[in-house]
TrEMBL record:
Transmembrane segments: none annotated. It is found in: Cell envelope. The keyword ATP-binding does not apply. This is ABC transporter substrate-binding protein. InterPro entries: ABC_transptr_periplasmic_BD, Bact_iron-sidero_bind. The keyword Transport applies. Residues 166-327 form the Fe/B12 periplasmic-binding domain. Keywords: Signal, Transport.
Amino acid sequence: MVGRRQLLAGGTGLIATALAGCTGGGGDDESDSSAEDVEPYTVEIAPHGEFTFEEVPQTYSVIPSVYLDIGMALGKQPVAATDMARAPRKMYDILPDVTFNEDEIDALATGSESGYDKENFYAANPDVNLIDPRGLGRFTDWDDSDIQEIEDATGPFLASGIRFGPTHPFGNEQDTYYELYDVFEKIATVFQRQERYQEWASLHEEFMSNIESELPPEDERPSVVALWRGVDPTSGQFFPSPLHQYHNQTKPLYRLGLEDGYDAEIPSGGSVGYEELLEHDPDYICVVGSLTSDTHEDFVDQIVEPFENDANGQELTAVQEGNVIRSGGQYMGPIVDLFATEAIAKQVWPDRFGEWPGPVRDVPEDEQLFDRQEVSDIINGNF
């Protein structure tokens, strides 16, 4: 198979060539066609280095993550992905004039963590792979030569995992970490959709400024323990997730100034029991990921009520006060981030931001903290 990427002569960058096809909409003057004349441009994403493009990539593959949401925020649906069972469809469905068609997405694997086949990459033929190969390595027995083979046949791997920060058990203090909007800007440059990014950045700045102006003083903000990896109160085993600047899956909690209620070192293996939760006894317990992957009814039936019905769970202040809440998680890109931050603000401070209705789509229009139509217009390039 002829390689689509080659080393720049005498340099360290990489050229992505023979890029074709188009997914996603566009109504502005940004580059959306590889037929347009584009000067070569370079994007650097640690730890993978610099990639230089001669033409604008049009298609991408993804393991469902922040990069799926970044792609959608830029008006681009992936051509290939893994398991979409927990993808944040509900957020996309809420936004007017935004389409997410899973039938048009080829499968890279039989599941998000298993069943990968290089032939699936070749068949999908993405121009770029918005996948951190370090993460892919956890789900396969592939080595660097296998990744190189896929890159040569399709396009470069252009992602840096931002879900976990250096304080997380899965993190590494030696790694380079990006905040969401830093890596968002880099991917916008990959697709030459910088104008969309600038519109997103402006909307996000105004959104956060409006919320921050209504927050109570920092010393009056409650504590929260964030739990992830599937919360089952009947098991008595829980996985705390730190609040940290470079820990994207708890970004809304950190950014709204909630105090990290689990201030001890997380044990090896990452799990704690009811004894440790009761020792810390936070004001709130937040279930990371449930906002995107669960319905409101499932959240209540499978998490809230089991906490209330457990003899140990009943002793937790958060359970007694009805303060078990939910947020986004692994898909926390620009779109999910808006919905999740709105949800946290309403669940913690309903007197300041309006009551949280439970289902994401049921927030009354006059109580929404961001304009859904404005978000759709940016996604579709109508600005």
